[in-house]
Amino acid sequence: MISFLGKIWRERGKFSSEKSLFKNLLDVRNRSEADFTDATFEKLFDPFLFCDMERSVSRIQNALEKGEKILIFGDYDVDGMSGVAQLFLTMKMLGANVSYRLPRREEGYGLSSHIAEEIKNSGTSLVLTTDCGISNRREIEALQKENIDVIITDHHSLKEELPPAYAILHPLLESELFPDKHITGSGVAFFLCYGLLLRVYGKEKSRRSLEQLLELAVLGTIADCGILQGQNRIITLLGLEHLKNTKNPGLRSLLDMSKSAADSLNAEQIAFYLAPRLNAAGRLSDPHISLELLLGNHTRALELETLNHRRQDLVEIFLEKAEKMIDGRGQNLPAFLLKSEEWPSGILGLLAGKICEKYGKPTVVVEVRQQKMIGSCRGPDDFHFSKALKNVAEENPDLFLGFGGHAIAAGFSISSEKYSLFESAFLRYVEKSRGTEEILQHIDFDFSHHEKIHAEEILELENCAPFGTGNPNPLFHFPKMKIKNSKACGNGNKHLSLFLENQHGQRFSGIFFGQGALLDRLSQDKEIDILASPEVREWNGERRVQMKIVDIRGNF
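The structure assignment produced for this chain is given below.
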């Protein structure tokens, strides 16, 4: 049966009444309790497992001894900014002659040619990149010719020809021995700081400083959708613990402004409240606003709040226009390619993500400039966008001015006169890889739950936290739930609040975000199936289970 959201529900496994909810969850996810043991500092890998760590640390130490001018260059998103902040604070701690630079979005991603020229004329002799650099072969080659050494820390998809950098710290290098291949840009930056402080101060003396850096590393790890297993899980749990008690005035003001309670801070709050505010500066203004906050400037929090509200308004306005474009062209296309001169490049990814989430199709949203176009891409789980762009580029040499990214998110820039060539080549690739038949979207859930629901069992599921990419929130199918009451709620009545009763007579409140319009189609005692993540809320000393609803199914 197709659900209200037009999706097929797919069950990962079967529930066994002989086991606890927690044990059932471990079984269907093929995990063990050992995967969720306490995160400790000692469980972080030795940074010198990176093949080029020794070379990187030695070069930086040499620069420190000689007083060389060091530049830290990073991407304009949270992953890049948090990496830059970690490296800058570490270098200042060691007395370095150091500065930082982030590109504004209109300057493009990574080390552009004009930024390389800027570096050449700055007296810099060592550049450290974070969350970028692996795609900048020509620019790094030009810097090396001027005797400016570059140490790359990055995690993005590799090109066939690597830059001639002095050293490369990248988990995906074919020759790399670092065991965890999923750490993000801020994670790689953290391990460089770890290696450097370990070499200078030793393990015990460097620990306190490294714990403070984890407050920053966790922001980039979650904001960049790092898989929350292995080292990312440890970085996240340790980082959250220290972030709750942060002494950083900038981070404290960000927590206050976003109304995030420090004592209950979790990965979801970072993803939905902190990261969007930090990213707002890079999307609509100057990313240095966010970087300065990460470095301790608490006065920047109000600016970020204002920018975030503006970002929300723009997305709402332009999403409506994008939907009209889709309606005009028809929804049966294998992919959506939408372009406009109105759309600022900072919100392209947000628009593409919302369209892809709704329709389940590869989506490219493009800002039209005078001589070139900037594209942001988002795809469903079965489509690898980075591979798609690489394939199109191989078949059409010199098509892109630049491109890069990950499996479900990527970006590119292209000359305006070549866009039609890209459009046809990309659609051919999509048809070849996904076919022309309509692919129904699906939602994977853990199992169907027919038993009584107990708050204690729901609380035990927290042992599997943090939840996010690679370790999603527990999601269960609760059948035959009767609607006892319903109402629209939230700003503009956007959300749907339900009061539900299960087969055992237990009653629960439920919230279905963004679906307030569904109210008119529901009636008292109507029976529905729900997909929901159960949570425990405390009210007047009483623990109550609340359902965070993801989808519903029934006769509407």
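Interim note for the steering committee: The mean pLDDT is 94. The first strand starts at residue 8 and ends at 11.
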